[in-house]
């Protein structure tokens, strides 16, 4: 940096030079000509120095400058200092990028960075293994040219990345990969790819096991119930207990089969019109029959002009599970209100009661299979712990989810919203 001493020195030299030139010009009686020639000479010398500086910067920036003891030294030294600092920062940046890439290559998931034009900027080792990319050969290539799958092309074009996309791997049809896209920056995207083949196989095995076991249990249970009916002519506490448990097991098997069908997708289309008025009228009759002689009040508030598209069997199963749960677990004197109405985002079904409520630490686990708040109460009331799990899967098939609000001794509210795209208003 040019300090005050150096600046004074330069000004002093310039003043002395022009002072001498003025005296010479006056002595020769050619003051203007002398000053003009001298100024032109100084300008030419500085232009030559400027050209030399440019050549040094562009041609030999790593060559150390040798001082020539003139006022251009400070410019050379300043540029040289900036270049040294830039080289240090460049090395640090290269080291950081190298460390980042080493860390990214160690990730168990594939990571691909691409831009708005779907051109690959960078990918890690796992992405190359899962998607068959070649690095750096495929740098700048379009993703949809390398992953040639119609669903992937549509997924990219839609630019709605809230959901993950499951696809067979481009290099192995037997490998199932999960793809998730994350947007960051103004023109940057991350494609995160994960091999879920093993998880998918285990899930498929679990579903098949549950379905097969449930199916195999149906026949012996039917036989057992038949013999118990024959013995019921002379009822005894033991026979009555066996009948009750056989019915409970039968209901459990039926719910397991229903859940397996919903999970496996072995159900009718979810785009058929569903007459909600008729559905809820049947549900009201079933609810009254289930209440029987108990002192419970149940009200149905139904919008008669609000239908949806979906699977009628599944929707009835979801609504009935919510209503029947309220009936089973509400104490005598409780009031239950089932409502079907239009809301801002679509149509909402809700079941509200003023019963015993649910403690906060249970709420997040209520939709797990076989989860029970109190095992003794569930057994006594015939609960299987599968009802809310069925509701969760039904709603997932209809792009919805279950909302649960509850306070101990204040009651509970179970609800779900079917979005606008499925609503049919009369």
Task: Give a description of the structure.
- Helix content is 53%, strand content 19%.
- The protein is of the alpha+beta class.
- A five-stranded antiparallel sheet has the order 2-1-5-4-3, sandwiched between helices. Strands 7-9-10-12-11 form a five-stranded mixed sheet, covered by helices on one side.
- Helix 7 packs antiparallel against helix 8 (237-264), helix 9 packs parallel to helix 10 (312-329) and helix 10 (312-329) packs antiparallel against helix 13 (387-397).
- It starts with a helix and ends with a strand.
Brief descriptors of the model:
five-stranded antiparallel beta sheet; 426 residues; alpha+beta; Helix Hairpins; 4 domains; 53% helix; elongated; five-stranded mixed beta sheet; Beta-Lactamase
Brief overview, please?
The protein has 426 residues and is of the alpha+beta class.
Please outline the helices and strands.
Elements: H1 4-28, H2 31-59, H3 73-105, E1 110-114, E2 120-123, H4 125-131, H5 143-146, H6 150-158, E3 165-169, E4 172-184, E5 188-195, H7 197-231, H8 237-264, E6 272-274, H9 276-291, E7 297-302, E8 306-310, H10 312-329, E9 335-343, E10 346-353, H11 360-363, H12 375-381, H13 387-397, E11 403-407, E12 411-419, E13 423-425
Parallel strand pairs: 7-9
Antiparallel strand pairs: 1-2, 1-5, 3-4, 4-5, 6-8, 8-13, 9-10, 10-12, 11-12
Helix pairs in contact: 1-2, 7-8, 8-13, 9-10, 10-13
């Amino acid at each position: 940096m040019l300090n005050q001493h150096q600046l004074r020195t330069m000004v002093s030299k310039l003043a002395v030079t022009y002072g001498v030139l003025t005296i010479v010009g006056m002595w020769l009686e050619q003051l203007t000509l002398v000053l003009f020639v001298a100024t032109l000479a100084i300008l030419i010398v500085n232009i030559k120095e400027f050209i030399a500086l440019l050549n040094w910067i562009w041609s030999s920036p790593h060559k150390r400058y040798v001082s020539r003891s003139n006022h251009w030294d400070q410019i050379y030294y300043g540029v040289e200092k900036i270049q040294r600092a830039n080289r240090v920062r460049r090395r640090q940046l290269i080291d950081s990028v190298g460390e980042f890439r080493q860390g990214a290559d160690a990730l168990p998931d594939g990571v691909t960075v691409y831009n708005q034009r779907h051109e690959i900027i960078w990918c890690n080792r796992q992405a190359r293994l899962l998607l068959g990319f070649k690095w750096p050969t495929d740098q700048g290539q379009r993703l949809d040219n390398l992953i040639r799958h119609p669903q992937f092309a549509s997924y990219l074009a839609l630019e709605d990345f809230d959901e993950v996309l499951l696809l067979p791997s481009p290099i192995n049809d037997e490998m199932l990969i999960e793809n998730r896209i994350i947007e960051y920056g103004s023109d940057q995207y991350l494609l995160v790819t994960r091999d879920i083949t093993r998880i998918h196989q285990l899930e498929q095995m679990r579903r098949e096991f549950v379905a097969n076991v449930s199916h195999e249990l149906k026949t012996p249970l039917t036989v057992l119930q038949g013999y118990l009916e024959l013995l019921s002519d002379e009822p005894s506490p033991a026979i009555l207990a066996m009948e009750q448990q056989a019915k409970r097991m039968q209901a459990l098997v039926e719910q397991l089969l229903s859940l397996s069908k919903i999970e496996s997708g072995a159900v009718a289309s979810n785009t058929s019109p569903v007459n909600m008025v008729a559905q809820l009228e049947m549900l009201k009759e079933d609810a009254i029959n289930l209440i029987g002689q108990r002192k419970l009040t149940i009200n149905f508030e139904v919008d008669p002009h609000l239908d949806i598209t979906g699977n009628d069997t599944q929707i009835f199963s979801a609504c009935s599970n919510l209503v029947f749960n309220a009936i089973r677990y509400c104490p005598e004197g409780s009031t239950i209100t089932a409502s079907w109405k239009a809301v801002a985002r679509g149509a909402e079904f809700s079941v509200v009661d003023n019963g015993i409520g649910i403690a906060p630490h249970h709420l997040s686990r209520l939709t797990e299979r076989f989860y029970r708040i109190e095992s003794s109460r569930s057994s006594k009331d015939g609960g299987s712990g599968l009802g809310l799990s069925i509701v969760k899967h039904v709603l997932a098939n209809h792009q919805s989810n279950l909302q649960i609000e509850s306070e101990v001794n204040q009651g509970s509210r179970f609800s779900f919203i079917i979005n606008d795209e499925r609503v049919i208003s009369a």
